[in-house]
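Supplementary Note 3. Input sequence used for the single-chain structure prediction.
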Amino acid sequence: MFDRGAADATYRYTLVEKHLLELIESGALIPGDRIPSLRSMSAKMRVSVSTITQAYVELESQGVIESRPKSGFYVRSNFRRLPLPSTEENALLVPRDVNRSELIRTVKDLLGRKDMLPFAVACPDETLLPGKELAGIMSAILREDPNRAMGYEPVCGNQELRKQIAFRCIDAGATVMPEDIIVTAGAMEAISIAVRCLTRPGDLVLIQSPTFYCFLQLLDTLGLRAIEIPSRADGGISAADVANAVSQYDVKACIFNLNFSNPDGSVVPDEVKEEIVRLLERRSIPLIEDDICGDVYFGPNRPQVCKKFDRKGRVLLCSSYSKTISPGYRVGWLIPGIFYERALDFKVTTNICTATPSQLAIAEFLRTGKYERHVKRLRAAIQKQMEGMQRCICCHFPAGTKVTRPSGGTGLWIELPEKVDSKEYFFRARALGIGVVPGLIFSTLDKYRNFVRLTCSGVWTKKIQEGIERLGDLAEQMKSQGIQR
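The predicted structure, written as discrete structure tokens, is reproduced below.
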């Protein structure tokens, strides 16, 4: 049903788009069907003909519908809804050394490149970030008390910033005090501190598969071994798989990203999160929880964090504002529970404290209520681009392609046809000026050789659309050439 009450949250023409897409995806309209005329749709949805026209033109530009002279608009014959990527179950759990660092370094060379289409870096477009607001806040701080930003903050972080972080943890279901929080230089520093608190070289760490490749690189540099359990695009990891792994091996810690997991976008249901926390609690196994994209949700409610169910202080919650406010300001945090003092020792021996100017600016941005308005707009922009990319992939990628349908986060996990090797695909795409991330680096295993991750920066432009189309052509070419893995 069309919800007119939602009109205050988005442009009216996007509501028309969504209504039509619901009709197509539900099967009420199938490829080749004629779409209701502009006037009939205008009367039905009680919006102007110009609004309907704008929605139709937008869907036509994305390859969902097509106009036929003197006949009207039709669902494109080649538009299709792609299935979700497959999940290969682990028949045997085996600890593995991590050996993906060389390829990971090659992929990370794309970070900060302005000459590449940004499908490889999970970073919002600069036009969507509050650069002017932050600059104004920073200017005011430096003008009113320039010495304030010159010295160290406490090792644990700025008090006002920790207060604001604690306040927003309530939305995620976690009840914490400012004194429970350590401010870090981004989420990766938080995760690095947490891992070093809990492990020694040679220890076993339980991760999901696929997992964020920086986690694998971290384990490699610390001399740790990984045990992988499968993550499914439509539900994430299961408590049964966690229980099976920890019953077989002496697992020292887990690293899980359960809300809009990178790369498959999965969300573990809250009841499963609680079950996982309880079974780890019984074995006194700490859980490092990465909630970096928890605020980038598309539905009405934010998914909850495992920290909500933590009764023993063994869940170490990590996140940052890199995906929502600014990656360059490098402000993240760690809530280490019973490991607080040890985490503080690792923090002080890493970089003493997080940069003072960044902490002051982010704290003021949060305190004045600007964050809630900003992140609402950001979520809408990322969702719009992600939906546009999904539709474009449906139309332009070869048969056999599968793609995720996340309810939040910043990326799409794509399974290409069997004969397309994602490592070769990465290098060929890079030569075309397009950044992608090969699936191989999201696991210690070799089961994602025909997968890639594409990220959404929150902008949908003709250039972005053409980039997706070129990636589709490249996949079709490699499939037809039969490049073997």
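The chain has 15 helices and 14 strands. The domain at 4-75 is CATH 1.10.10.10 (Arc Repressor Mutant, subunit A).
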